[in-house]
């Protein structure tokens, strides 16, 4: 990736918009991709139940964080 705001980051952010963590996977950040996907998906799934309906905000926060993280990734390790 060329850096923050590059075309690759825009594509990664769009990917994360549809599936949380997919943008991180496109960028090669496998652990971040798994974390975002699992947290968002499990939270959304638990919110379907009547007892744990309060879980959807956690899923939404993880989903939005995934999009922002993909858009702002600059590719440097330091």
Model description:
The protein is mainly α and 78 residues long. The chain is built from four helices and no strands. The chain has helices at 7-18, 22-26, 30-47, 56-72. Helix 1 (7-18) runs antiparallel to helix 4.
Concise overview:
This protein is mainly α. The chain has helices at residues 7-18, 22-26, 30-47, 56-72.
Helix content: 55-70%
Would you count the extended β strands for me?
0
Order of helices and strands: HHHH
Radius of gyration: 13 Å
- Unreliable stretches (pLDDT < 50, length at least 5) are none
Distance between the termini: 15 Å
Helix and strand composition category:
mainly alpha
What's the main sheet like?
A: none
Shape: elongated
Number of helices: 4
Mean pLDDT: 88
Taken as a percent bin, the fraction of beta residues is under 5%
Q: Which helices and strands appear, and what pairs or packs with what?
A:
Elements: H1 7-18, H2 22-26, H3 30-47, H4 56-72
Helix pairs in contact: 1-4, 3-4
Key features of this structure:
78 residues, mainly alpha, 4 helices
């Amino acid at each position: 990736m060329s850096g923050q705001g590059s075309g690759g980051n825009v594509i990664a952010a769009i990917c994360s918009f549809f599936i949380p963590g997919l943008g991180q996977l496109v960028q090669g950040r496998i652990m971040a991709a798994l974390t975002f996907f699992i947290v968002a998906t499990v939270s959304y799934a638990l919110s379907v139940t009547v007892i744990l309906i309060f879980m959807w905000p956690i899923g939404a926060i993880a989903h939005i964080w995934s999009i922002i993280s993909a858009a702002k990734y600059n590719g440097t390790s330091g």
